[in-house]
Amino acid sequence: MNPARYVISLFVILSLNFAIPRAMPGDTMTNLLGEDVILSDDLVQEMRREMGLDLPLREQYIMYWKEILRLNLGYSYHFHSPVLPLVLGRMKWTLLLAAPPVITGALLGTLLGALAGWRNSMSSRLQTFIFLIIYSTPPYFLAILSLYIFGFQLGWVPMKGFYTTGSPGNIVHHIMLPVILMSLFSASRNHMIMRGSVIQERRSLYALYARAKGLHDSQILFRHVFRNAALPIITLIALDFGFIFSGALFIEMVFSMRGMGDLIYSALLYRDYPVLQGSFLIITVMVITANMFADALYGLLDPRVRGR
């Protein structure tokens, strides 16, 4: 693990975090006020000055880094609120929505994918076929279809939101269908990758040697093959944890849930730079932290990568 690599990555990504929102087409004031609002030029300039948008980009960039070092994420143009409590308020709901699928999808997809890759049975092929269909289906399409069937037609789940009364049972009732859908998507991707990895590893010489020693199939799979085949999954799970706050965007949009995905989407529409920067800052820190853990785990599982 090279700490300098992560520090450089953090600096580059946070610099892009400043540049990319400002490179988007459209004017911040026009998106913020709307095209139907007519204000005098003096008033528009005064608003730009208050928001610091009249400064040269170089000065805005220096101020941006100063505020980050002070852990001040700024003030939202659109939501009229400090960014940090705004992001934290949305983050807890997205975490509640997206964390269980990441964990469930990792466990379910890895285990079933390993078994499907090791045993070439009819049930394994059927299981792979089902996961392939889920994996190939756009998430928003399956979310809309599920909401129509289970929410609108059958009335088993609420149509929108995280809660109506706020009780634990009510929250679970609301997020049950989105969590199941996201778990299926995560599990299907992990299943396909783990299956392919196990198929490749089972032809290795060490697997043949273990079989020649008289070990049972389950012993060869879980003692020897599983560890090597799981290495690509570790990277994917690390990325899942990194993008946990933005990856649920489509699900949040379909189920009208006000989480981080919805917040980023709204900030994007209104060119709300402080919210975009604050949200991407948290995602960046999570991605880099998750990759650090993945690198450390790689070293534990595979001695060949230690010290590189």
Question: How would you summarize what this structure contains?
Answer:
This protein has 308 residues and is mainly alpha-helical. The protein has 14 helices and no strands.
Structural summary, described in words:
With about 300 residues, this protein is mostly helical. Helix content is about 75%, strand content about 0%. It is built from 14 helices and no strands. Helix 5 runs antiparallel to helix 11 and helix 11 packs antiparallel against helix 14. The longest helix has about 35 residues, at about 85-120. The protein is globular. The protein starts with a helix and ends in a 7-residue tail after the last helix. The relative contact order is 0.15. The model has no long low-confidence stretch (mean pLDDT about 85).
Task: Looking at this protein, list some descriptive labels.
single chain, 308 residues, mainly alpha, 14 helices, globular
What string gives the helices and strands in order? HHHHHHHHHHHHHH
The rough form would be described as: globular
What's the total count of β strands? 0
Mean pLDDT, nearest integer?
A: 84
Radius of gyration, taken over Cα atoms and rounded to an integer in Å? 24 Å
Q: How many helices?
A: 14
Unreliably modeled segments: none
Query: What's the helical proportion of residues?
Result: over 70%
Helix-and-strand structural type: mainly alpha
Largest sheet properties: none
How much of the sequence is in beta strands?
under 5%
State the distance separating the first and last CA atoms. 7 Å
